[in-house]
Write the structure tokens for this entry.
Amino acid sequence: MSYSTKADSRIPSGLAPVEPRSLVAPALLLAAVVFFFGFAGTGGDALDHWFQGLFWDGKAWLIPHGHPLGDALAYRGPKALIIIWAALLILAAIFARRVRMRALFFLACLAVVPIVCTQLRAVTNMATPLELKTYGGVHDHLLLFEAKPSGYPSHAFPAGHASGGFALMGLYWVLGTRRWRGLALGLLVGSWMGFYQIARGEHFLSHTLATVALAWLLCAGLALAMKRPLAREVSSPS
């Protein structure tokens, strides 16, 4: 079936529905996370510290830095697998014409989500738990919208490591009837990577929740931007 105006208004079964309104839910979730955890008096700060306390005994973190098994299963291991997947997507985009646009879309998700999350940290200017006095560090805990002194850490919000896992949610837009499996995979892998970082003091719960919302928003935005070529590819005959 050739691509047409009708195909543009009716997404083929191989793609998840995507319209401008698809961006509303993730944008609202991101705004809610930023507001709840970014201001004093909302309860977000208390929730962050309560949850963090589950992994801190007053002297050490539940998962120590340099733990070989944790590093293999939740840090370097997943990161390596995602990089290998990205390399395979590049090959698919070059040689597999039938899935080229879907490969490029998913590759864009795997690249854009971590890059945006990592670069945003220079703007949000937030410290990791292990850098704070509460957990044996040297800095005071300051919220997102509080003024920060010169030299305050700025590599925590949103979470960079977990963003690679949450980027896998991009599969939702290209797996057709199995799209929910793709969404579940992204949420599970991202959460696994995110909670590993929380358990060793690298991030607060709020950092990871912001990453979920931002990854969802970015993947949905990329799906919207690539809607026509994706629909054309799925609608084309084999």
Notes: The radius of gyration is 20 Å.
